[in-house]
## 1
Amino acid sequence: MRSETIYPKPGPSGGVLIREVIQFLRSQKQALPVSSHILIAVSGGADSLALAHLLIKYGRRVVAKEQIRLIHINHGWRGEQSDEDARFVRKFGRTWDIPVHIVKAKPPGIEAQGESWEDLARETRKAVFRKYAAKYKAQVLTAHQAEDFAETMLWRILTGSFQTHGGGILVQTESEVRPFLRTRKRLLLEYLREEGMEWREDSSNFAGRFLRSKMRLYMMPIVEELFPKAVDHLVRLGLEVQENRENSQITKNSEKEGPLMALLAGPGIRLRRAHWDAIKKRSQTGLWQGDLHLPDGWKLTRRVSRSKRVAEQWVLEKS
């Protein structure tokens, strides 16, 4: 008698959350389940712990548990509290039998003041993510969520950088992917409570030392009180800006790449950069024929003829 694998079923909040993640990743043309290894950046806080726990326990349609690793960067800002965060993440990894990489970063020197601390930490994270993504040929998932996205959008608008950085937090940069960008913080907390999970609180988030924490403490509550849908609207705006810029870049690229790429930039086709690169690479080889299925129900067919007058023919149509 063949035994069947029994998968755990999430509670109400977990069910909503995992569906949100899958729908969002698919809307961004991410191929699921992910075939590569996944590194989940875990600080020990609620957001990143929710992401790690969700994918480890209920995320088989996103990534197999065996492909998951955790990465924690100890910036050392808060002394013993920072070390406790690292121990907490390591214990979480042992509990779920998941490899954990703890990276101890050098704390900022006395010359680093104010917001430059955050800039240095961001640069450190980027460097660490690049290193480990290359080592394991992995994607790095971070837990930036809707409120983070909305704060960044307001930051760009109010500091006058919207024209150059109007998309806010990008869905993907290099190897980093952010599956929670449309997910509200309250759902993450509901999920952790539903699962009986504890998490760490970063005291610097409530100290009001950095501009970002001041926005979170003083500005966003007032904005949401006056405009209850503000976060949702800002997130939608940011995603639209990102999509429009990507489509614009694709159109510019098509003008340089010849008839095939111009064809693909045509009637309402919404290609993501990964698909664009794959099509370009495949078309350059000249070794394939038949159907190539594209996003949004389009199909590209390459027919090779033995006729000297028509060596090949491209047909773009709805599949």
Note: The longest helix spans residues 230-257.
## 2
Amino acid sequence: MIIIFIGPPGSGKGTQAALVADKLKIAQLSTGEVLRKKTESSEGKKLQEMMAQGKLVPSETVNQLVLEALNNNKFDCILDGYPRNLEQVEFLAANYKDKITAIYFDIDQKLLTQRISGRFSCKKCAKIYNKYFNDTKIEGVCDYCKSNDFVFRGDDNEKAVIKRLEEYEKETRPVIEYYKALGSLKSIDASKEANKITEELLLLLKK
């Protein structure tokens, strides 16, 4: 079985995919992580530039990376961030025949913008913060290792965030309608606290 987490950037798909995969003892496949690893290779420079500008990576590239990962996985898994458009839906349907359950992470766009554009991490210990919701206790000092060296992702600036959300609405909304029409779509309020969302996801997946 494949469980698909669908939702805009910052909706918590990645966090919940890791938590739920651990609870259910199944694999997690994050397309964002797969793409970031690809950018570290010599041929990944163009992908890195696209992601920093908030643009979506071409479906042909994503499809092949996901198919390779799925073929290497022998167990049930959670797909985080894929399929993102109808082209990817059709590719998945044609190349992978397992049962699919899709879960939509429903969340307000203003909250999303703050979640994404406000996040940063400590370069030394990798602790993640958010200037709107979870800032450091002392400005400019990591709560854990006391470092003052922080990292902001290139695609987390407000301009790139708006671009990403626009692309999401255009490309991914039809995917939601597709799985809804098939009767395989479930929905969850992604504005709740993480532990509450995890509980609700586990209940949904038992039905």
Note: The beta strands are 2-6, 27-30, 77-80, 100-106, 119-122, 128-130, 150-151, 185-189.
## 3
Amino acid sequence: MEEQHDLAKWLEGRMTESEREAFEKSPGFAGYDKIRKYSEMLKAPDFDTEKMYRNVMETPKEKAVMQMKTNWSLRIAAVLVLAIGLFFAVRPMFTQTELAPNGTKKMFHLPDHSEVTINSGSEINYKKWGWQKNRCLDLKGEAFFHVTKGKTFDVNTDLGKVTVVGTQFNVKARGDRFEVTCFEGKVRVQSTTETILITKGQSVAYENGKKITPAPVDENGPGWLYNQISFNAENLNAVIAEIERRYDLKITTQNTNSAQKFTGTIPADNMETALQIIASAYHFKYTKTAKNSIIFAGK
């Protein structure tokens, strides 16, 4: 015990001069001296309070900010992935719109593979969601349908409704004219005044809700599919509107007040010939004022 006490005093520097000399002459001093030297080599560096404070206040904050940025990046990415997934999941529930701008025609397929061709200046809206149970669409303008066999197929317009099962038919609903022609199968037509069933080769037409004599049926299909525009007792405004849609024109009239109705066919792929036919039928002159602008003037 005394030896350990002397070692502690020596290491702490509390020995008197005589005690230190006596201790250094003791047999175990050489070992004690080596222990002291190695202990000094392992001595911790001086503690810098100011430096430690800066490390505590600055370094952790910097890491926290970086972690926060990382977390927000991951969260934003997760939200984007979720949003994209939800978009594609609910997309079929949205109303699908198929449009044929003036001067064009468009063909597309419905979810049951029914084929639809839209005439110029026409639009169709439908929903893909639940299509097999509720096969219906809304038509503005004119379209030809080749419907696959299945459940009832409905075409809704502002002027009437058409119901079919596996058939080919054409529907035109423009202005005050509602026309339906059946090329295959059977078609049930519901106008504002009646419901009628027509079969292959038959057609029905209404104007202002009143039934009128329809045009003869071309067994090959509606003329507009083959670049022909057919009119059946149509007034001048309707004729002009159809030409505008097909050729993407703007037609203005001067002194053209005419009650004459036009029946006939004009080309849908030759604007000059089409304009000449109508000008001749109504005794008009026509003038081009710009690339897509025409004036019809009475003589």
Note: The helical segments are 2-12, 17-24, 29-41, 49-90, 236-247, 271-282.
## 4
Amino acid sequence: MDAIGRPHIAYSDLPNSDLKYAYKGVAGWQIEVVDSEGWVGHFPSLRIDESGRVHIGYYDDSDYDLRYAYQAPGSIDLSWNLAGTTLELTWTKTIASAYWVFGAPNVPHFSPGFAPGYQYRLAVLPPYTHTWSTTAGVSDPSENWTFLVMSVDQTDLEVARSNEWESSTRR
């Protein structure tokens, strides 16, 4: 149980040989695959630290080794791919309730935030997502777009933030 009484569970999905993590948030149960490389997830043990981050220890039956997974302490690696005029953002997954994608054209001081309307927020994506595509700003060379991805918890508080990516750096 976390500090406000919500349950969190780490478990082995035996048919798929995956380590999974589930928690009950305001939208009900959320489930994430934490590790799926090989025959993993056996004998999981979960701990929630003082800052609310999840830590999971488990056994990897493929390598006969103990493994450790934890909630990233504040950073997401953001990369991009451009195919024609479609930009695809890809990021590393964290343990999160949702991912928010922010982007804005020609913003000298890009500062996504929690202001009314969540300034510059383009999309809200489910926890298992790690890609997002758009054509906004990539077909017009005069526009310089800046993007970032934010991981939020079940109460919409920021857990991690990606590096910023500027569309001008790919031209």
Note: The mean pLDDT is 78.
